[in-house]
Each structure stands twice: as structure tokens, then as C-alpha cells.
Design goal:
The protein is an all-alpha fold and about 325 residues long. It has a single domain, classed as ABC transporter involved in vitamin B12 uptake, BtuC. It has 14 helices and no strands. α5 packs antiparallel against α6, α12 packs across α13 and α13 crosses α14. The radius of gyration is 20 Å and the shape is globular.
Length: about 325
Amino acid sequence: MMRFASRPALLAALVLLSLASLVIASMAGAHAMGLSEWWMALRQPDSTAGELLWRLRLPRATAAWVVGAMLAMSGCLMQVLLRNPLADPYILGVSGGAACAALLGMTLGLAAVFTPFLAMLGALVSILIVFGLARGSGPWSGTRLLLTGVVTAAGWAALISLILATGPDNSLRGMLFWLMGDFSYALLPGWAAVTLLAGLVLTMSLARSLNVLSMGETTARLLGENSRAMMWFVYLLASLLTAAAVSVAGTIGFVGLIVPHLVRLVTGSDHRILIPASTLFGGSFLVLSDTLARTILAPRQLPVGVVTALLGVPLFLVLLNRARLKGQQP
């Protein structure tokens, strides 16, 4: 566990990393900018380079940062909910419900403005299904919730496959890219930034309760916490953050799993520092991943979900092996 005095330094370093990632993302591309050209473009938005910077690269980079931050925060909450560091924002079927509803809207030709509302509706349906089936008497069962979520996620995956199989051929490629995570046409909607800020304020106000809840429902009750209400709130908040992320850029895996793992190695499990640190690092991680996705095979672009998986899988295996050698849970 890191000393309290070093926590401000860590957060300051992560803020600088976030700013640096945005600068790198706005400089990199088919037309790479030097630092002096980037500075001139920043100051002259009406120039050709300024148009490229302000209308394309910065909006895409900020959208990636907000989505990464929401996924990382959701991952922290899901790991508290299931008391399992292997929990992921997508493991309980929330992203599947959001993606299924959004794809259905695309297939029906609804305007893009309806996508966030459809994603939220799909996530809400998934929440009701999972909690309705997993709820039981007695102490909270993380295992029952996990199994219900996995089965629900499999059901959503089947429906998504059905939509793709029966959808129009001319939009199939775009739908597949969106499912794998794509910022090609993503802009930062104001409501997404507000959702992230509200989620951060709420989770920080409940950081102590999250620390208690991570010890188990019985312990939380003995310490005076309304554990069942907290479980509902944590699941709802994590689900809304995930649905918001899905509605902006599709399904992007491993951010909510890997980022809290890496940050926890430095900060420990105190959510008063884990949540803001994971939020900042998650945003930076996804911005840099998206920059790699659009530059590694330029002018062709990869879905960012492919890059996060290629980075996340070996990193997760290393963390898993590290925990095994220490005889601990990862």
C-alpha cells in the first residue's frame, strides 16, 4: 500500500500522462505533426492543420479518453460487486444488452442520435434480467450473480449474431467495426462527459463504503452498511457507465479488467485512490491504444478493441502467472 503522502504525486503524474496521451494522439496520424506545427495548429484553428487538429484528432482523442475512463471506473465497481479482481464491465451481460439494442436501431435505420438511448435501454433490460434472476434470500451470492450474468451475456451474443446475419450487407462492415470498438466517427457528446464526472463524484463519495463492501456482504452489514442497497447502486452505476461507453464507441474489452489490476499493484485496494487513479490511467490507456490502432497500418485503421485485446491478453497472463507464483489470487 502506498503512503498517503505519495498519492497526490501519483495523481499528478497520471494527469500529466493523460495530457501527454492527448498531445501524442493529436500529433500522430497519416500527416504527422511536429511539436512546433502542432502548437501553431492549436493556436490557429482556421488553418489546414488547425482543422485537422480541432475537428478530427482532438475530438476523437477526448472521446477515447472519456470512454477509457468510464470503462476503468466500471471495472473497479464490478470487481467490488463480485469481490473478484477478474471481474470485467462486460462480464454480467450489460454491454451485450447495450450493443444488441444499439445494433437493432442501426438495422432499423434509426438516426444515430437514438443510439445512446437504445444502449441505455438495452443495459437496463440486462440489469433487470440479471438481478431479477440472481436475487435470492440470505447473503448476497456473487457466484450466482456471475453465472446469471455469463448466461445472459451468451444470450445477447446470440441475438447480436442473429442481427448481423439478417442485417443489410451494405452496413455489415460498419456494424462489425462498431462491435469491436471504433472511434472513426466518434465525437465526444457532452452527456458522456457529464456521465463520467457524475460517476466519479458518486463513487468517490462512497469510497469508504466500497472498501467495506469489498470485505463481503456480512462484514458490511456488521459495520452498519446497507449492503443490499449498495449492491444495487454499484451494479446500476457500473452498468450505466458501461452503456455510455458502448453507445459512444461500441464494445471495447480488457480496459476495465487490466487497468484496475495495474493500478492496484501501485495503490493497493483503497478505493479512495484506486478509483481516481484507474479513471485517469484508463483514459490514457485507451487514447494511446486508439492512436496505435489508427497509425500502425496507416492509412488503414484497426478497431481499437483489437489493439486493447492484443495488449490486454498477454498482460493479463503475466499478472495471472505473477499471482500464481506468489500463491495469491490475481
